[in-house]
Amino acid sequence: MERRWGKRFGLYEVAAELGRGAMGIVYKARDPRIDRFVAIKTICLVGHVQEEQKVYRERFFQEAQAAGRLIHPNIVTIFDVGEDPETFDPYIVMEYVAGVPLERYARGREATSARHRDALDTAGCGSPRLRTRARHRSSTSSLPTSW
Fold first, then answer.
1. What's the pLDDT band for 116 if we cut at 50, 70, 90?
2. Domain around 74
3. What are the tens digits of pLDDT across the range 42-79?
């Protein structure tokens, strides 16, 4: 995927790249209607055969629907979903949470306090998922999970 600084996903103005995975990128963007920052999760479907694109797109929107139904202080709020009008790549618009990337804690550099360890335990335990009976896509499919 190309860098999209100053470009848009729908009405959202991309400000920076927050992270990158095997199939997509998460951006920090501005919502001009409400004048707030949001996070936009994308997947890139270029290079996949049409049937794979259809499956990935369906799974991505199912993820947005499932996450959008969850209400928990440790889960970001989903605001919107859509498709880029130029590339047709789907995206999810969610609450932007400023702070230190979890990756830094996971590597042990900053996980020194009990509060930090509790936060990591909560992030990894999946209890909100269990209460809603949602299952992670890796439990039902061989599709990549590192988005």
1. low
2. 1-98
3. 988 878 888 988 999 899 999 999 999 998 888 899 99
Half-sphere exposure of 65 (CA within 13 A, CB side): 8
pLDDT band, residue 21 (cuts 50/70/90): confident
Round to whole Å and give the CA distance between 30 and 17: 12
Is 147 inside a domain boundary? no
Q: Are residues 94 and 106 in the same domain?
A: no
Q: H helices of 70-108, where?
A: 102-106
90 shares a domain with 67: yes
62 falls within a domain: yes
Q: Tally the C-alpha atoms within 13 A of residue 115's C-alpha that lie toward its C-beta.
A: 0
Beta bridge partners of 9: 12
pLDDT reported for residue 146: 42
d(CA 141, CA 137): 6
Count of structural domains within the chain:
2
